[in-house]
Design brief:
Arc Repressor Mutant, subunit A; Rna Polymerase Sigma Factor, Chain: A; 68% helix; mainly alpha; 2 domains; globular; 192 residues
Amino acid sequence: MARLARGDESALADLYRRWSKPLGNFLFGMCSDRALSEDLLQEVFVRVWRAAPRYEPTAKFSTWLFHVARNHWLNEREKRSHRLKPISLDGSPTGEDRYETSIDAPDRNMPTPEREAIDRELGSRIGVAVSRLPEKLRETWVLAVTQGLPYPEVAVVLGIPAGTVKSRMFQAVRLLRDDLGPYVAERGDDAP
């Protein structure tokens, strides 16, 4: 940011290379719309470029950056709420904008095509279940689990106490278990 504030435009490219994927994943996790998340990502980096001369490193850069992205998403959500892609009657995202989640396969020699299909199905169901979480729980989950931010950083990004982050994570896990419970029970002992 210091280089960018001095006018070094290559610094913006460096920031983009380092942070575009985590920010893009965070934004996609919030809106479940690939095109919208890419638009939001571009605008976040425009805001970073504009803010460079005023940037004061009072927190970790990543915390500040995710805070900027979250605020931009909240503002845009209000403007675009009627334009977001619909969710099908079964609650799953429609079209190409399905939430993508990767699931680490259990430690086995070589996953069979059947195991890979099961893991993809579970990942899809987890993504749908996460998209059904209330927004406050979903944004906490996405920052803590998908982005791997520690709870104190999530607290700063969201502007809430760390205890509230823990409480929201507990609620999110409970809701996800409730939502995914019938699927896991249906699968029996073969669940990963």
